[in-house]
Amino acid sequence: MMIAGFCEPDSGTITVGDRDVTRLAPQKRNLGFVFQQYLLFPHMTVSENVAFPLTLRGVPKDEIRRRVGETLEIAGLSGFGNRKPRELSGGQQQRVALCRALVYRPPVILMDEPLGALDKKLRDQLQVEIKSIQQELGLTVIYVTHDQEEALVMSDRIAVMRNGLIEQFDTPRELFERPRTPFVADFLGAANFLPGRIEQHTDEHTLVRLDSSGGLIKARRHDLVSGTEVKVAVQPGRLRACAADDGFCTGTVETATYVGTLVRAGVRIDGDAPLLRLEVPAGRGPVTGERVGITVDADDVSLFPTEQGG
């Protein structure tokens, strides 16, 4: 809302390139917008909808025709110019909305959950298409989404926000593999959290004694002092089932759900502990009632001081 110009920040500035737009009216910022609702004019053809921003700007008709044609081609809609929005599928309508934002080549495009109304298969397809168009044209896109997978797939950098503040601003890989707060770890991957205490450090690892099972788990080297109470965070996809008593803890499989290429398992580890969530390849998934050990690579374990909170 602040970048678009619909509300003013309490402090600081908003710049697009070297241009300070903090106090400019929305229509003077020259930004593109794509919303969850397509907001196409039903009485206009596809070409007329895409041309609308250029018409408002007084662009000559020949130039409008050329730029509309180029933009529709980029989005794979070359043969749809004379159709009305009602003749298009949801994905096609959203591509028209994207073309309308692209046609005047704004320096920044704001997208507010543009794929939220589409089914998963189409959403996955359009994620790839939008990313491809963004890279081809060299655009800056600020994309709002509550879908963690979508954020990881589409972004070069992600800002994870909480209560109006940025918890972490980083690449998708860094956010997922090196979260700086428990909130980021949980938000991006629904991490497992186990309480424990730093036992000792080696040259390569930090060893943590788990409160629940009493087992030792290795984490990547941390500068926390021995005796510090910590939360151990591990993503479900990084845990592995092994022979009972061979891992950092042992437990019983309470749930095992087949979801295509994966089995999502819930393991009740021995001791007073929450259910551990695992995501393992379907061909090697554990079965309900099986006794298993749990193991994980030290590089996939994050530690947070208990006082850091959520």
TrEMBL record:
- Taxonomically, the superkingdom here is Bacteria
Q: Which GO terms describe its molecular function?
A: ABC-type quaternary ammonium compound transporting activity; ATP binding; ATP hydrolysis activity
Q: Does the keyword Transport apply?
A: yes
Checking Gene3D superfamilies in the record gives:
2.40.50.100, P-loop containing nucleotide triphosphate hydrolases
Report domain ABC transporter positions: 1-188
Alphabetized InterPro entries for the sequence: ABC_SmlMolc_Importer, ABC_transporter-like_ATP-bd, ABC_transporter-like_CS, Mo/tungstate-bd_C_term_dom, P-loop_NTPase, Transp-assoc_OB_typ2
Name of the protein this chain belongs to: ABC-type quaternary amine transporter
